[in-house]
Amino acid sequence: TGTYDPELNLLYWGTGNPHPVLAGRVRxxxxxxxxSIVAINADTGKLIWYFQPSPHDTQDRDATETPILFDAxxxxxxxxLLAQASRNGYFFLLDRATGENLLSTRFGPENWSxxxxxxxxxxxxxxxxxxxxxxxxxxxxxNWWAPSFDPDTGLFYVNAYHHFAVTYLTRNGxxxxxxxxxxxxxxxxxxxxxMLLAIDYKTGAIRWRRDSPVGPGEAFVSVGAGILTTxxxxxxxxxxxGDLVALDPATGGSLWHVFAGGRLTGCPMTYExxxxxxxxxxxxxxxxxxxxxxxxxxxxVPPSSHVSxxxxxxxxxxxxxxxxxxxx
Length: 328
Known about the structure:
Distance between the termini: 33 Å
Strand content: 35-45%
Radius of gyration: 21 Å
Number of helices: 1
CATH class of the domain at 228-328: Mainly Beta
CATH architecture of the domain at 228-328: Beta Barrel
Number of strands: 23
Shape: globular
Order of helices and strands: EEEEEEEEEEEEEHEEEEEEEEEE
Structural class: mainly beta
Helix content: under 10%
CATH topology of the domain at 228-328: Thrombin, subunit H
């Protein structure tokens, strides 16, 4: 998903992979402007600047993860910032007016990068590109799940994963699915770990994390949930067990959770109607609108009450807003 700065009149988008995705030998070089963050003039469509999180990508590390815009101090100077936790396992902080790289830092282990170039972009190791005999790949990353930034804590929150896999080059005819998607290869997932990270935007340091196993019957973290942080000092997201959770954004401590009967794969959102605040979540094909009892605001529940241990959620009522039936 892209975003827009009306002051600068710039659109910001992340771009997808070069093709064939895994077979990089047939497309030497950085493969501009794939796996990039681009700033585009909204009136003319002119490219103003670009930054490439994954030059010459050969492991499906697109840069389509949501960029977050915010204004804050960096090294003692007020800046217009753009932050992205990329699918390649790096956290990037850019000046969104100029595209200047301010910070590039890993948010988890990996074995494919040889460091950073002078623009702050990772340098891929040629020996970690997929091979016909297979290559052991370790990486950390995220996907399309929306992150969030809390100006009160100064933390950037993202659902991520750490994983191992063996990646191969294949002839297209050997794998019908890969051939139709122009991958040029395939991979065998070995192990993965889901994690929710709180990243200090000024340093890239992980201030807290919550680990969870992959979903039932999965060898790889294939789905995740977006994140919502609120002015009431709450963080809402879904975990890999399928629970909707409310956390303290400063510490990651649990305040409340509930299993709503399916997987949360979208991003929670909040709105006000008739003076009442609602929290909206998508669970499989059902939308749930959660509301607090007026006489006992959820934000006022003290952490010492261990709300997360209660089987019955503090939310007193909820509504299932089912999708309308198609007209015949």
